[in-house]
Amino acid sequence: MSASHLHDVARAFRDALPREDRLEVFRIDGLDRTGVPVCEAALLPANGEPATIGYGYGFEPIEAEVGAVGEVLEEYFVGEWAKRAPRVQSSFRAMVERHGLDAVADPLTLCLPAGSAWTPDTPLTWVEARRFPDDTPISVPIEWVAAYPYQTGIPAELIMPITNGLGAGFDLGHALAHGLMELLQRDGNAVNYRALDQGVGVKMDAVEEPEVAALLERLRALGINVTVKLAADDFGIPNLYVVGDDPQPAISLQLTACGEAAHPDRARSLRKALLEFCGSRARKSATHGPIDAIRHVMPADMADRQLRNALAEEQEPRPVEAMAEWLAQDAAELRRRLAGSVFRVAREVPFSALPDAGPALSADAGARLDWLVRALAAEGLDVIWVDCSPPGGSVRVVKAIVPGLESETMSYGRLGWRGVRRLRARRDPLLLDSPAPGALRVRLRPEDETRCGGPAWWDAPAAERLVAPLFPLYRESGPFAAQLLLAKRCAA
């Protein structure tokens, strides 16, 4: 995408946001040394509510700006949609009796937490989505559309809402393809990285894009030991992630930086994962680093406002506590925690051997969307989407949902039939074939239990032991929250 087109996208994204609120966009890469432009964007509501924040990165500043404002656009408009969308309070059984089985998403296909108490008679809050490409209506629980719990206006009924599956762009093809690739990315790495890292490194024997090759060399010249890893190649898509040890991080938390990508064009997947790794280093510094350092890159009034909101916001206690515990560690301790998983390479595969649909899919969003939908359909997976676009039609914002794709396995115990099949195939001890103390039944339809080898139980206590020292890899606290908790403890 040319620089002039990116400027057009950035302008359209900005124009779509409410004029009464203030949008701040600023560079945060000064908190790191990679040289990759990284932007933070914050939409500051006129009523004083917490900001909607996004981050972006790229080889050029305009790429970083588009990414950051695009994230704000996604999260803001999915929230606005969730506020105004018509809702129905009903059980799954009653919804099916009223509308038919094909018109209601079965929660058992949506990766419920293991041990979930859901039954077909459990009252839920339903909203209307559409199937793609035939556009037929299908009702889904609102938690699968909202990006954050507060956007629903009600307590979480089945799951903690997450941002996975959001997309924005000039047209539906770009926006929906982006959302689907996020879902595929999470599906591919859900039980294959972080605490469950399988140690599959990628040997960089062929790097198609010169600027990507140059960035790899620059990082290594800085002493950052970059490792490209393979999570999966399901659907013919190279699902990559990039990590890197650093003997001289600006803050120890930079050791935990990670960039992820799943794209049919393997060159694009590598590009995105590598740039996101650099963006993650700066983002972690801007979100959880020393507040005095952050003030050097953030507008002063915005820093003060985020501090006030961090003190006032009600956050999940565990991410705040876990991040505060990490911030209290030095680099050597975090490196030790990552050595056996994130930094481990047990075997390598050549980059040139990874599946590759070629660069044409990077250039044509419509062709990319068609390719993704066909790849999912070949595995019996349907695409559901919600149109959260702002009025006016200049940009599109969507939330994509694909029943059957994996999500949030280690942090929330959300495991579907694909995750069970993967864990069972490698005889992972976290998956049990029969009940055991503390183990939770994986909630699946009978036909999905059959396709993954039978009923399964999730060893929740063992998973907790693995996740506990690495929890902030899965769920981070909000800006400044962990630093403020540490300061409060020191003052006491």
Fraction in helix? 25-40%
Number of helices: 17
Major sheet: 6 strands, antiparallel
Tally of DSSP β-strands: 17
Tell me about this structure:
With 492 residues, this protein is an alpha+beta fold. The strands form 5 sheets. Strands 4, 5, 6, 7, 13 and 14 form a 6-stranded antiparallel beta sheet that branches. The protein has a 3-stranded antiparallel beta sheet with strand order 1-2-3. A hairpin with a 7-residue loop joins strand 2 and strand 3. Helix 9 packs across helix 17. The mean pLDDT is 95.
Topology diagram in text:
Layout: H1 3-16, E1 22-27, E2 38-44, E3 52-57, H2 61-84, E4 88-91, H3 92-99, E5 123-132, E6 137-141, E7 166-169, H4 172-189, E8 200-203, H5 210-221, E9 225-232, E10 239-245, E11 259-262, H6 266-288, H7 291-294, H8 300-312, H9 317-327, H10 331-339, E12 347-350, H11 360-363, H12 365-378, E13 383-387, E14 396-401, H13 409-412, H14 417-425, E15 431-432, E16 439-441, H15 446-451, E17 457-459, H16 460-467, H17 481-491
Parallel strand pairs: 8-12
Antiparallel strand pairs: 1-2, 2-3, 4-5, 5-6, 5-13, 7-14, 9-10, 10-11, 13-14, 15-17, 16-17
Protein name: YcaO-like family protein
InterPro entries: YcaO-like_dom
Domain YcaO: 56-439
